Amino acid sequence: MSPYRLNMAFNSALILLSFALITIAPNAQAKTLESQATNPMLLELYTSQGCSSCPPAERWFTKLKQSPDLWRKLIPINFHVDYWDYLGWEDPFAQRQFSHRQRIYKHLGHSRTVATPGFMTNGEQWNGWFYRRPIPQSNNKAIGKLSADLSEHDARIAFQPEQRAEKKSYTVNLAILGFGLKHKIKAGENRRKTLQHDFVVLDYAKAELNSKGKAKLDLPDVEAFNAKEQAIVIWLSEGRDPSPLLAMGDWL
């Protein structure tokens, strides 16, 4: 083969190799999550861009990014509710199902009020933030082992209960969180303020585990939010009770 043809063949091979690398690059994000022996504390914040009392709670939530216990002992998750939208500003992160989740907690007696900012720790109302108290430590042992194999588009989840555990109907919940989300509020109680949000639930999915303790969930499409930093949180609940029984999370 002439040097010219050899060079052309080499360049063509490089182009094909580069294209292949670009094609498979997203799969490099695949990872596996596994729960720990002790269940971490899932700290839920219920908030809204239309609530004038919420920005201080959101600023405190942002500081939790620096916690040495993050994802290992503490999993913060920020639900934006829609019941303040009528005040003149529609929260772009709010979903009706998040408001419904907070109302179910009250209906089941896990909380006394439906308000913002509102906090839940492993499914129980917590008012410690208002009195500058430390976040309580979870004293819940894991009820089994939860794992998830993540790909670019879905999560394959498996739960192996303790040997002596009674067989129950579990629901697996999956949330994609966004960080560093800044919004200038033009109306409502927070008008003219620029708010930053972290640990925000951008979208959410859930499914019942099958008889083998497995489920497959499509990862929510959250590209529209343009969150450069994201995390994933997966937890188990039982029946209609949204309380987390076993949780895990990590950066994406």
- List the secondary-structure elements in sequence, H or E: HEEHEHEEEEEEEEEEE
Mean pLDDT: 89
Helical region count?
3
Question: What is the radius of gyration computed over CA atoms, rounded to a whole number of angstroms?
Answer: 22 Å
Strands of the biggest beta sheet: in what spatial order?
1-6-7-12
Q: What number of domains?
A: 1
What is the percentage of strand-forming residues? 35-45%
Helix content: 10-25%
Molecular shape? globular
End-to-end separation in angstroms reads 48 Å
E-strand count: 14
* Low-confidence runs of at least 5 consecutive residues: 2-28
Largest sheet: 4 strands, antiparallel
The secondary-structure class comes to alpha+beta
Helices, strands, pairings?
Blueprint: H1 3-24, E1 31-34, E2 41-47, H2 55-63, E3 74-80, H3 96-107, E4 118-121, E5 124-125, E6 144-150, E7 154-161, E8 170-179, E9 181-184, E10 194-197, E11 200-208, E12 214-218, E13 229-238, E14 241-251
Parallel strand pairs: 2-3
Antiparallel strand pairs: 1-6, 2-4, 4-5, 6-7, 7-12, 8-11, 8-13, 9-10, 13-14
Protein name: DUF1223 domain-containing protein
Signal peptide: 1-30
Organism: Pseudoteredinibacter isoporae
Characterization of this structure:
InterPro entries: DUF1223 (IPR010634), Thioredoxin-like_sf (IPR036249). This protein has 252 residues and is of the alpha+beta class. It has one domain (29-251). 17% of the residues lie in helices and 37% in strands. The chain has 3 helices and 14 strands. It has helices spanning 3-24, 55-63, 96-107; strands at 31-34, 41-47, 74-80, 118-121, 124-125, 144-150, 154-161, 170-179, 181-184, 194-197, 200-208, 214-218, 229-238, 241-251. The chain has a 4-stranded antiparallel sheet with strand order 1-6-7-12, with no helix packed on it. Strands 3-2-4-5 form a 4-stranded mixed sheet, with helices on both faces. A 4-stranded antiparallel sheet has the order 11-8-13-14, with helices on one face. The protein is globular, with a radius of gyration of 22 Å. It starts with a helix and ends with a strand. 32% of the residues are buried.
